[in-house]
Amino acid sequence: MARTFDLELLATDPFRDAVELRYVGARNVDLATLLETADFVVVCCLLNAATRHLIGAPEFARMKPTAYFINVARGPIVDEAALIEALREHRIAGAALDVFETEPVDPRNPLLAMDDVIVTPHSLCWTDECFHNMAATGLASIVDALAGRRPQFIVNRDVLDHPRVRAWLSP
Q1: Model confidence, pTM
Q2: Which SS3 state, helix, strand or coil, does residue 26 take?
Q3: Which is it for strands 94-97 and 68-71: parallel, antiparallel or unpaired?
Q4: Beta strand segments in 38-148, E
Q5: How much is the pLDDT for 72?
Q6: How many CB atoms lie within 10 A of CB 74?
Q7: Are 86 and 112 a contacting pair, CB within 8 Å?
Q8: CA of residue 138 relative to chain centroid, distance
């Protein structure tokens, strides 16, 4: 999608060869080169032992002060304290996040109050099947609740112990 904006696409991926990356219009470079030259650093790798805190203070120090950091992968790939420090010290221009190192995110997390940070909900995927399933289960939960039945998916199970909810749900 970024090719639409006539961007030069760089990638750091030890598992993709040059042919695969050229197919999508990207050039494979080492992480240091990517960090030093990219205007937008987008993290979209999996989380494992090798990628935990892959991006920390040394990596933010390599980025241009005009660069933006975007994490759409998993929160623990980024050392969040280092990101907060880089933003506070204006070593990078800003960040966009849909994941955090600790989730659910603490409402007191400084990233939530920073003017140079955009926060969005994390969306696992973007397919017709996924959206159909989310809509179907969401609507089924509404129907269950209105009929006095316990919905299948409840985020905060403690609410079931509340007297009004106990009275509302069928025995």
Answers
A1: 0.72
A2: strand
A3: parallel
A4: 40-43, 68-71, 94-97, 117-119
A5: 93
A6: 20
A7: no
A8: 22
Task: For residue range 6-18, list pLDDT tens digits in order.
Answer: 889 999 988 888 8
Distance set, CA 28 to CA 13, 14, 25, 77, 150 (Å): 7, 9, 10, 20, 51
Write the single-letter amino acid at 152.
Q
Q: What are 114-122's contacts with CB under 8 Å, separation 24+?
A: 114/87, 116/87, 117/87, 118/94, 120/96, 122/72, 122/98
Q: Which two tokens stand for residue 13?
A: 């991926």
169 burial via Cβ count (<10 Å: 0-12, 13-18, 19+): middle
CA atoms within 13 A on the CB side of 55: 31
Residues with a catalytic annotation lie at 74, 103, 122
The gap between the terminal CA atoms of the chain, to the nearest Å, is: 52
Residue 166 has a pLDDT of 86
Q: What are phi and psi of 117, to 5 degrees?
A: -125, 130
How does residue 55 score in pLDDT terms, banded at 50, 70 and 90?
very high
Pick the residue with more confidence: 165 or 70? Answer: 70
- 36/72 Cα distance (integer angstroms): 20
Task: Report the DSSP pairing between strands 9-11 and 26-28.
Answer: parallel
